[in-house]
Amino acid sequence: MDHYCVFGHPIEHSKSPWIQSRFAELTGQTLQYEKTLVPLDAFKTTVDAFKASGGKGCNVTLPFKSEAAALATHCSPRVALAQACNTLKFEGDQIYGDNTDGLGLVRDLVHNAGFSLKGRRILLIGAGGAAAGVLGPLLAEQAHSIWVANRSVDKAVQLVARHASLAQLEGVDCQAFGLNHEAILSQSFDLVINASSSSLHNAALPVPASVLQTNGLACDLMYGPAALAFMQWAQDHGTQARDGLGMLVEQAAASFQLWRGVQPPTQQVLADLRALVSLSH
Ligand code: NDP
To answer: Which superfamily is assigned to 2-99 in CATH?
Structure first.
């Protein structure tokens, strides 16, 4: 039986084994998928040992996504832009690295939420690992503009600078701002994506409601009870709200497709997972 794993620290909360096992069941694939807590100083040795034992590939979560990118012998252009990798596929001596976070978000917004991104004005809040993973795939959808706003403006500036060529190629106005910049506060956006960890930390909403648009969409990459305050805030202002559970399932599906060559039925798995998450809280 083929073995896969998700490596992280912490890892207990991970839904990946449940999602990947459901994908396998629904597509008739035979595989085993586990989660492993990796000591903070032992990412490379743990992955090497898993690979040597016959493992076929793995997912990587916090805080090892940068180390995973460095471990890959070759990788997708998405990894180079994000400087982070959430999926490794072992191919003999070689390790292929990909970042499926952005593919997952785009697929969730476009296919599951039915929200086309082309020509839209998008506000992306945050410039950490999640924002870095999604910016490239969002640019490829040819929005009108993607403005990246972060608490620490220098990180937003660096992220946008790394994506400048892609933004130009796709014809997208991509700029970096601090969270309180007048340009952000003085207009509304078709789509507001909270890729900061404000919800994770139960912190105040990172931007005022003036950024929201009636009939627009606001998406927090967080999911579960921690995302509810952001979603309620959006709904209170007439904006459709979405959490990050769909992205979680869709990024997992892109990993599954990379490893197994089969596209799993994500909408059914998302519905099942949503029921499971709401039951467990
Ligand atoms: P990082 O730690 O890499 O980055 C955190 C980001 O949030 C930084 O830009 C930081 O700003 C900003 N931030 C932190 N606290 C606040 C606050 N109180 N107000 C405003 N901004 C704040 O985290 P990740 O990027 O990995 O994760 C971000 C979120 O995305 C998390 O909620 C995570 O759960 C979610 N996520 C969801 C996924 C999914 O599949 N649904 C996948 C990956 C992540 P600064 O630079 O100033 O510190």
So the answer is: Leucine Dehydrogenase, chain A, domain 1 (3.40.50.10860)
Please write the tens of the pLDDT for every residue from 133-150: 999 999 999 999 999 999
Q: How far is the CA of 221 from the centre of ligand 1 (A)?
A: 9
Model confidence, pTM:
0.96
| Pocket lining: 197 vs ligand 1, CB cutoff 6 Å | yes
Task: Select the CATH number that applies to the domain covering 102-245 from these four: 3.40.50.720, 3.20.20.70, 3.40.50.20, 3.30.565.10.
Answer: 3.40.50.720
15 assigned to active site: no
**To test the ligand 1 pocket, which listed residue (135, 197, 230) has its Cβ within 8 A of the most ligand atoms?**
197
Check pLDDT > 70 for residue 75.
Answer: yes
The neighbour count for residue 2, using CB atoms within 10 Å, is 15
CA of 95 to the centre of ligand 1 (A): 27
Contacts 24+ apart (CB under 8 A), 155-164: 155/127, 155/128, 156/127, 158/127, 159/127, 159/131, 159/132, 159/135, 160/135, 162/81, 162/83, 163/81, 163/135, 163/136, 163/139
Domain range list for the chain = 2-99, 102-245
> Nearest residue CA, atom 36 of ligand 1?
221
